[in-house]
Amino acid sequence: MGLPDHPPLASAPPAQRGCSPLPFAAPDSEDPALQQFLEQASAQLCSWLASASQRPPLPGLSVMPAVEPQQRPQPAGQLLSDLQLVMDGAYNPSHPGALAHLDPPPLAASIVGDLIGAGLNNNLLAEELSPSLTRLERSLMAWLAERLGLPAGSGGVPASGGTLSNLMALVTARHSRGLGCCADAVVLASADAHVSMAKALTVMGLPPQALHQLPVDAGGAMDAERLEQQLVQLRERGIPVIAVVATAGTTVRGAVDPLPEIATACQRHGVWLHVDGAIGAVFALSEAHRHRVPGLEQADSITLNPQKLLGITKTSSVLLLATPRLLEQAFGTGLPYMEPSWSGGHGGESGLQGSRPAEVLKLWLGLRQLGLAGIEAVLDGAVARRRQLQALLAPITGLHLVSGPLHLLAFTPRRGDPASAERWSLRTRQQLLAADLMLSRPLYGHRHHLKAVLGNPHTGTAELERLAGVVAASLGSPP
Ligand SMILES: *Cc1c(COP(=O)(O)O)cnc(C)c1O
To answer: What is the whole-number distance in angstroms between the Cα of residue 304 and the centre of ligand 1?
Structure first.
């Protein structure tokens, strides 16, 4: 072979540059290096999961690996040992005492869905970049929407988190009402609505006052009569309403706003109803639990976060709409650098995100792995654990409990000023952590609470009894 008289073609083997082949899987034969790498990584992950109960929910400070790339490529063994350092310092959601947040252990099939989705490296931006996945996504969104009770023809789009789902819902509502250029339009929500509403308004170029937060009742739910009054007043003053946001499952206590009454008010005033069901909408997937979120089916749009109770690996959120084409009307730009859609439209035209991973894969696989019976079992377990903890804490004198119909429970000392409640929450959280129980410490109604999210399927009676014992002792109550 003589010396080439032209520069090497782009496809020339990289070995010619004195380097081993670049680490992309060979397209024409099994790649033993990749196979081994994946097998070792799987084994490492499985041992991390299998030792979860031997490590605390919240690890201490850990050693960090080097972050910058070295001059020479690193072998798989080195990468895996660097990875182990990060894993050693990671939050440990599979520990039975991990009760602080809405972040459960990962559902098995969703781990596989993430792996395969990464390997396929398709893009939900356009049909030609994800032919089967686009169809799978569209069909699964339609199934979810109908399962939640939305009318035939409903559907939606996955999003990287509930914050984004809520933002897309409000942008779509505003666009559908022709209020895009209206600087004084408002959004109504309860005082306990999620902070992502404020973020959405910021992105939408609206001032903080555009979010009207209505007081909640003693159960933490929106007062529907106050809502009706507010809607009447706004109409009289000529102030346009972008949407009413009802929450199905508030973040601290899991309260559910009275959706049927709110829907009636919205219909009467011709206002868009968005239900932020990031926590609670999942209960409508089961016949046995649907009664916890009645009226969901009357929403114009619903946020559902399978990444929470169902344990679908993050991120997994979906925005479902009764009329999904409104998404395309709000966000569609035309994709001049793509082939025209040959079936139901490009994924990138029906939402804010452009390039998007195949998050649908882990959701679809996870739902199929659980089956309707498994979904119901997850919900049953979560509600049963909340009830059990509630029963254990109720007899503790001086403790005020706040909860709702779902799987969240928060509590604070009945007596003392907010500063003493804060000191109690700090001290008690430390004592709980020392007992391998991790709770969170939200500020709710101007007082610090401790909050337990009972979505972890590994949590048993032993953990709940230990928890109640520490809390009782913190108030000087006999355990
Ligand atoms: C978690 C949550 C969100 C936001 O979801 P992210 O996935 O964290 O962006 C919105 N609303 C409620 C009620 C939530 O609990």
So the answer is: 9
Instruction: Please indicate whether residue 278, judged by its CB atom, sits closer than 6 Å to ligand 1.
Output: yes
**pTM of the predicted model over 0.90:** yes
pLDDT at 337: 87
Tell me the pLDDT tens digit for each residue of 347-376: 999 999 999 999 999 999 999 999 999 999
CB 162 near ligand 1, within 6 Å: yes
Parts of the chain belonging to CATH 3.90.1150.170:
372-474
- Residues spanned by CATH 3.40.640.10 within the chain? 112-369
430: CB partners within 8 A, 6+ apart: none
Of ligand 1's listed atoms, the one at least distance from the Cα of 247 is 13
**DSSP of 138-149:** HHHHHHHHHHTT
Predicted confidence at residue 82, as pLDDT, reads: 97
Query: CATH for 112-369?
Result: 3.40.640.10
CB burial of 283-301 (b: ≥16 within 10 Å; e: otherwise) equals bbbbeebbebbbbbbbbbb
Instruction: Report which protein residue has its CA nearest ligand 1's atom 15.
Output: 251
Residue type, 445: G
Per CATH, domain 372-474 is 3.90.1150.170? yes
pLDDT digits (tens, 9 = 90+) for 433-460: 999 999 999 999 999 999 999 999 999 9
Please count the residues of the chain: 479
Measured by CA distance, the residue closest to atom 14 of ligand 1 is 278
Q: Read off the pLDDT of each residue in 69-85 and give the average, rounded to a whole number.
A: 97
